[in-house]
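## retry 2 of 3
previous attempt timed out at serialization; input unchanged, resubmitting
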Amino acid sequence: MKVPRVTLDQWRTLQAVIDHGGFAQAAEALHRSQSSVSYTVARMQEQLGVPLLRIDGRKAVLTEAGEVLLRRSRQLVTQASQLEELAHHMEQGWEAEVRLVVDAAYPSTKLIQALTEFMPKSRGCRVRLREEVLSGVEEVLK
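## retry succeeded, writing output
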């Protein structure tokens, strides 16, 4: 597997430049110097070999490639945050996955209601649901 050349911090910096309307505003939001933000984005473009921004007057504007990569970077940063949050919850004793075996005769409305109530509290815990008939539940649990 190829090791990424661009860091999450670089992606976050690019996002801040766009979200806050420029290098100076991003620097303020990130509590960094403007030169640090400019250098980070310039280095990132160098590493990728693709121009992400172009200067239009006094404003940095995304290139076509920049728009695509920015959109994907938002997903990447979100997933990285979710991954760290999941690790934190696991450290606190939460399971990463719960397997639930339910008899087919159990009312589906009650099951859906229970799962709906659990999801906001789940802290990233995945539910693997399996439905069995007759004595299938007992067999699975043995």
